[in-house]
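Q: Predict the assembly, please.
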Amino acid sequence: MPRIFAALAATALALSTGAARAGPNDVLRMFNWNNYMTEEAVTRFEARCNCRLAQDYYSDNEEMLAKLAAGARGYDLLVPTGNAVEALIKSDQLRPLDKSKIPNLKNIKPQHLNPWFDPGNVYSVPYAYSLTIVGYNVERMRELGLPTDSLAVIFDPQYLRKVERKVTVLDSQRELFAAALKYLGYSANESGEAKLKQARDLILRAKPYWAAFNAASYFKELTVGNVWLAHGYSNDFFTAQQDARNAGRKFSIGFSIPKEGAVFALDNLVMHKSGKRPDLAYQFIDFWLEGRASAELTNAIGAGSPNQAAMPLIDPQIAANEAIFPGPEKFRQLEMLRDYDRRLRRTLSRLWVEIKVR
Amino acid sequence: MFLVVFFLLPALIMVVASLRYPGEFGGLAPLVSTRPGEEAGLTLESYRVFFSDWVYFEIFAKSFGVAVLTTLVCLLMAYPVAALIARSPKRYRDMMVLLVVLPFASNFLVRVYAWMIMLGPFELLFSRFAVICGMVYVHLPFMILPLYTNLEKHDPALLDAAQDLGANAWQRFWRVTFPLSLPGVFSGSALVFIPVLGMFAIPEILGGKDDWIVGNMIKESFLGTRDWPFGSMLSLMLTLAVLAVAAAASWLAGRRMSRA
Amino acid sequence: MRKLALGIEALAIAVLFGSFLASGGKLLLAGAAAALLALAGVLGLAGKRREMPGFWLWFVSLLAYAFLYIPLVIVVIFSFNDSKLNAEWVGFTTAWYLKLFSDEDMLRAALNSLSIACGAAAIATVLGTMAGLSMHRFKPKLLPFLVFTPVAMPEILLGVSLLIFFLNSVSPALGALGIDFGLGLTTVVIAHVTFCIGFVAIIVRARLAGMDESIFEAARDLGATPWQTFRLVTLPLIMPGVIAGALMAFTLSIDDFVITFFTSGVGTKTLPLEIYTMIKVAVTPEVNAVSALLMALTLGMIMIAAKLAPDLMQAKT
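A: Predicted assembly structure:
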């Protein structure tokens, strides 16, 4: 049997090396979220730079940060969210950008420039964004007469009673605490322990009515109809909405920004110091900022585009969706998450454990 | 057995690496930390937090409960399968073993999603039941294979002898087959029990609001709180607890076998 | 009496995972259960001799096999699902297979996974078998600890510590010798071998437990060299354990995400890396398609291997 395995390994290895693309030698290495770029965009870019775009994937900023923290090297480009950009800057892992090589930076909407984590965009340019909001089964919400424009539906037992065990909230301490803090009228980045404990109590009061803490599969259940209300990401709700529509289900999925405000996650292109091909990285950044690739991504997965030049190419229905492209009024209510310091992280994690156990 | 050295090498890599991290990870403070803490102080702090709080103990207890339940269900399901394979004609045996393992060539995530599709319509998703189902499903071969391996070597003559001595079917099983299969039962149980404790994906996907186990907490420490010292401490605690259970089990087994 | 015991057990299992089937009251599933029952009856009655397994054994085993295969059937069916989210049946399409065949990254990842799994399983089986044997023969104090620890250690910890070890110790050490050692397929295989060895060793030891030492002594007395003893006596005796261990290592390796994520190099693709990271967007039926394909491929390769070298598959006991 071991010999069989060895034989199998040899065959498979031969096959896999045979299958390896015999393309150009120039390779741009990118560490990105999976499915965060359309195939059309990849093909176009490869044709233009006469190089190969090799992407490795992560599903969470923390995975990427952990791997880099342990010493992984060799990525030209990363696509971290704002708070992770800050972490990377502070640990001195990023290469400052030469703006003269990215003329298309002018396409970025002014509201997304000069972010708190990187004043003056020294290291980063915006890639795409998502919002942490509330998604729901439109018909069910109407039947039950529940509001869909407020975080009250996921925190107030008065409403929760009607959707008991049909609600999921994100399995993420920062996101859930941010929602609870927002509902209580505080900042999503509140650092006072008393206020955090208040948020914990709010969560514990609502918990008996929830079905699960879930960040991995809630939107599947939403689109099937097993879950009626969820705290989650705009991209996910967009996908769920599309799926419910394509499948011709009897209900539809809606999502909206709660009036209390929401968390805004801006993903950015940054260049890692260990990258070997900054030249190709610059080419890619400028390519991405042209707008077409960004528009394709928005049309495909409902990610928000920070690019003005992308807007005309975006499906008008999506462009008009306030929960993906909020107007200036709504935009002011959005807040980006900032990393807590070590002490506060421990405090929060302690509260989180309590929430999970009680 | 000079080749043992070749085995020791990777194992040593492992052990050396595992011994390194309390210091390393404490020194390698989380990315955003502003002041570099002292290693020793940091490590001890994690332990202090752990031991001064019942919450963590509760999670450990719950996780052991889930693991015990999973192991028992696996054992109940696996024993007949293993026995059947062991008693089938030789030419079918390997095929039957292969059939046990084949589903596992498909991706874990897709299989768990298949469970979601099955459990969803019955309102059983996001429950303890769903977690146990998923756990049993993922770990069943780890019980079947060692059991089969053990049962396969039993000499049928022993059972004949027992029958000649007047033992009925139940007695033959309980007094002869089962005691002889104990090493298989123990290794199978170890191979199910231990990985279940460290598992986080199944509670994450299938579990409800109360199905957090140690595996989740450890993952959260590394990839949520970026608190490597705490995560390492939890892992070490878990490993120690598991080794203690394993040692206790093998001691009991040794006693039982020396009596038999 | 034994039938009764098995019957009770069948009942217990039926209650456990039948409770949700029953609660839905789906006729189809009831039909499937009846078919199982009938099949078990036929197979059970077919065996007239006492050594042949009886009805209840067949029944419970078939139930367990069904438990293993029902989700698999869903995986395969849903690979033809015309839906991006793949949460419920929408319509029939072969589009995902077509997409898969043009998706070089996914195919390469599948092949990589397969070769890593086979390689890691082969190495871990050899090393694990030796570990199991020496644990049985020499009863060393430290070895069981070395073997058990990687099994008991949470995978994130193992992944992170191996990564740090590779980058900070192995790489500079080999670099000093003029060898360029970076993360890649090799490191993934080493990492997989590390945690698979324990599983193999445990299973091999379970096989050896209680085995009569005198067989080996007899072989030696008859003038066999240690190698001959191993080759002609020990190995055939432990073969089923070795096979089971190899299969287990294979399944562990082919499905591993966490450890692979940390120990893989830039551009190393494996199937779990491609699939798990999709969780944030949507795990499409393409993944079901590649899973179905991989299973077919695995089965096919083993069948061919079994045809070409039937003696390798035989458990010589």
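Chain A has a mean pLDDT of 91. The longest helix of chain A spans residues 2-19.
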